[in-house]
Design a protein that fits this description.
This protein has 274 residues and is an all-beta fold. It has no helices and 26 strands. It has a single domain, classed as Jelly Rolls (Sandwich), CATH 2.60.120. The radius of gyration is 18 Å and the shape is globular.
């Protein structure tokens, strides 16, 4: 198995709580980004106390109540499937905070972690406020939900976004990277991709490669897989007949997303028919 591809674990944690992924706490080569997926049965509870990390809890599917410190956010979540393609509710949780998530229905929650430097207010990120945008042209089109963009001054490190790419299109394309702390030209951000496909037996292809090819992996990515991007370009290709969803988590020394396109492929942006 490629070292950057992680398959779902589906490990019971407690009654009604199943760990689908855990990419953190020494189980990852990433320094800045941590990521977990937890499934909750109706009525089940997941609890965690953060130390020096902040967290964004994204209600991927189902409904849940999130308590963070003294605040409780009830009936969060807007969809039964991510492929309803509507934004969902999330909660930003500051460092050194205890939080609790209770499933009001069967619920899947993504937990996105990054270093927290300051105590910030816990904050609801409601679906109604999520900025939606369309990117790309021709066979390079995707729809984006900006859950926690760098334009929103809520977090110290975290950036969170979800992306839909239709059948036959490429995403994160032309291949781009953000692995150099060289602002204003490029920022250093690690990244994770949590993937789902519709129908679920589908797959996508993702390549992660650096200019010198010291890192160069091309992966067949199936439903519920996670791909780690410690550095390099990282395009995604979607085969005919399937729709791709992925949730991105990014973090680095500066909370700024500034990417650099692969010069070998940037020419496609300048075509006369573009």
């Amino acid at each position: 198995m490629p070292k950057l591809l992680r398959k779902p674990e589906k490990k019971p944690l407690s009654k009604g709580v199943t760990l689908i992924h855990e990419v953190k706490d020494g189980r990852t080569p990433l320094e800045y980004v941590g990521f977990s997926i937890v499934d909750l049965d109706k009525g089940a509870v997941f609890e965690e106390t953060l130390t020096n990390q902040e967290c964004c809890a994204v209600i991927l599917t189902g409904k849940a109540t999130v308590t963070a410190g003294e605040q409780t956010f009830q009936s969060l979540g807007t969809r039964k499937s991510v492929f309803e393609k509507v934004p969902t509710d999330s909660v930003y949780i500051t460092k050194e905070e205890k939080y609790r998530i209770k499933g009001e229905t069967d619920t899947r929650v993504a937990l996105c972690y990054a270093p927290g430097m300051t105590k910030r207010p816990n904050r609801l990120l409601p679906a109604k406020d999520i900025l939606q945008e369309h990117r790309g042209i021709k066979m390079n089109q995707r729809s984006v939900h900006n859950i926690l963009p760098d334009s929103l001054d809520v977090a110290d490190s975290l950036l969170v976004v979800e992306v839909y790419t239709e059948s036959g299109n490429f995403s994160s394309y032309p291949p781009h990277k953000h692995d150099q702390d060289n602002l204003p030209h490029e920022s250093f951000l690690e990244e994770t991709y949590y993937h789902e496909q519709d129908p679920p037996q589908g797959f996508v292809f993702q390549r992660v490669y650096t200019d010198d090819r010291s890192l160069d992996e091309t992966m067949t990515v199936e439903n519920e897989d996670v791909v780690l991007v410690p550095a390099g370009y990282h395009p995604v290709g979607v085969p005919d007949g399937y729709t791709s969803y992925y949730l991105n988590v990014m973090a680095g020394p500066k909370r700024t997303w500034k990417f650099y396109n692969d010069p070998a492929h940037e020419w496609i942006l300048d075509r006369e028919d573009s």
